[in-house]
Recover the amino acids of this structure.
């Protein structure tokens, strides 16, 4: 787990430097990062007028139930894929 955590932290830094990442990939990165750091999404879904918040909530909700280590590994894999 310690190795995965260090890979996750390195991937989160690398993700900040990614160029030309589409919105769907950005939402997937956001969702996996939140799932890996905070667990399942909580709270109410943002209202219709908050489209960005709603999209983020929906993306995070889509990975609900994913184990922390699985979310971290998926995040690392996605950053590697987008960076290549």
């Amino acid at each position: 787990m310690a190795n995965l955590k260090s890979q996750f932290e390195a991937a989160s830094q690398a993700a900040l430097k990614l160029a030309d990442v589409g919105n769907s990939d950005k939402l997937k990165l956001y969702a996996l990062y939140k799932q890996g750091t905070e667990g399942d999404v909580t709270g109410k879904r943002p209202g219709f007028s908050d489209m960005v918040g709603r999209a983020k909530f929906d993306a995070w909700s889509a990975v609900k139930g994913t184990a922390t280590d699985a979310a971290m590994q998926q995040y690392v894999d996605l950053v590697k894929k987008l960076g290549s």
Observations:
- Residues 23-38 form the longest helix (16 residues).
- The mean pLDDT is 95.
- Residues 56 and 84 are 25 Å apart (CA to CA).
